[in-house]
Write a structure and sequence with these properties.
The structure is a single chain. This protein has 47 residues and is mainly α. 91% of the residues lie in helices and 0% in strands. Helix 1 crosses helix 2. It is flat, with a radius of gyration of 15 Å.
């Protein structure tokens, strides 16, 4: 498993990985997206 994690770390340090990190942060900060995730978690917890 160490090989998998090192590959992930290398990817996250690459320009494309950094770009995806920034995109994920922007999406996570969007109020509409946060509401969708919160609603999904509520539905999941009820089961």
């Amino acid at each position: 498993m160490a090989g998998l994690f090192s590959k992930i770390q290398r990817f996250l340090r690459s320009p494309k990985g950094r770009e995806l990190q920034h995109k994920a942060r922007r999406i996570a900060q969007d109020p509409h997206t946060r509401r969708k995730v919160t609603d999904a978690l509520r539905r999941f917890r009820r089961r």
